[in-house]
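Hello K.,

You asked for the raw outputs rather than the summary table, so here they are, unedited. I folded two proteins back to back in the same session to keep the settings identical. This is the first:
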Amino acid sequence: MTETLRPEEWLALAQNDLDAAHLLQSGGSGFHAKVCFLAQQCVERSLKGVLVSFSEEPPYIHDLKRLMELVGEAGGTVPADIAEAEFLTPYAAQLRYATREERSPIEPERGLHLAEATLQWAREAVRY
C-alpha cells in the first residue's frame, strides 16, 4: 500500500502545478487549455492536502465539487468564491484522456486566479 502524502507535500505539488501554469500562460497563446489543466491540478491537490490535514484519505477522483463536499464533511469550510473553481473539473479528463465530450470554455486567467486563491486558502486551512 502506498503511504499517503502529508498535507505540506500535497500543497508543494499544488504550488508546482501553479508555477508551471504561470510559466505556460506567460508563453502566449496556444497553451490556454494546458493552463486550465494545471490550474485544475493545483485546486485538486490543494483540496486533497486539506483533506489529509483532517486525517481523511483523499479519494482517487478529479471532481473538484466532490472534493469540496468531502472537505465540508470532514469539518472544513470551502469559501464560496473558491467553490467556483469546480468549472475546472472537466480539464482533468479532457487533456489527460483526450475525450470527445463537450469542452468547457477556456478561461485561463479565471482558472489561474481560482487556483491561486484555493492554494492560499488551503495553506491557511491545513491543520498541522
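The second followed immediately with the same parameters:
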Amino acid sequence: MIGRAFPKTDTGLRAVPAKIEIRRRVLEAITPARAMVFDAFAGTGQMWAEVWQHAAGYVGCDERWHKDARCCFVADNRRVLRCLNLQPFTIFDLDAYGSPWEQALILAARRRLAPRERLGLVLTEGTWTKTRMGNGWPGALRQAVGIAPHVAAVQHGLTQTMHDDLIHRAVRAIARQMQGQLVRQWRAIGMTGTRMRYLGLILEGIKRPGAALDAGGSFQLDRAGDQPPQKPSPWTHHGPRNQRQARP
C-alpha cells in the first residue's frame, strides 16, 4: 500500500468520516490554492460542505438539481466528462456507489499529466458483491485492467485479495494512460457485505513519455509495512493485443 490504510468502516452514514478524511488528505496533498475539483457524483453536497468548498474551484455534476450555492451540471456525468475541458481540473471525485470505472476511463482518455504535475483522484469502488459471486466483472473494470471481453470471470468469484489486486491493476493502468504514476494512496474498506472501497489517490506525471511507470519499491511510504505485496497475482491473463474495446 502506498500511503495509509484507514480502519475498516461501515457503508452509509458510518462511512462518512472516512470519506471526509480521505478527501481532506487529497486536498492537502494537492494544496487548496491549486485545487480545482470536478465532483462527478455531487449529490446533496455533503463532501462539498465538508471539504471541497475549501478548494480554489469546484464544479459538480448530478442528475438531480439541488438548490444551493454550488456550480453544478445537471446531467449524466459521462456526457459532461466527454465534452468538458478537463485540463484545468486537478482533483476528480468519482463517488459512485457501484462502479466508477467507466468515468475513470473517460478521464484517462481525456486528461494528460504534465511532467511532475500532481492530480488527485477519489474513487468509491463497490463491485465486490458482483465479483465475489462470480456474476461477471463490470465491462469498464475489465477494460481498465486489460482483460478481454471473451475471458470468463472466475467461476466461484474473487477473494478479497484478488479483488484488491484487480483494483490496483486498474488504478495503475489509468495512471499510465494519463502519462503518470501512482505516488500516494489512502484507503478505507466497508465492514458490511458490500465491502465498499474508498480510495484517495495522488498521481504524478512522469518525466518523459515511455519512462518506467509505477515500479515497485520506488516510492517513499508513510509507514513501514504499507508497501504493496510483492507476491505474483493469483491469476494472470494476457488478452489478444488487437481486441477491440469500448470507446471511452
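Residues 3-205 form a domain with the Rossmann fold fold (CATH 3.40.50.150).

Happy to rerun anything if the numbers look odd on your end.

Regards,
P.
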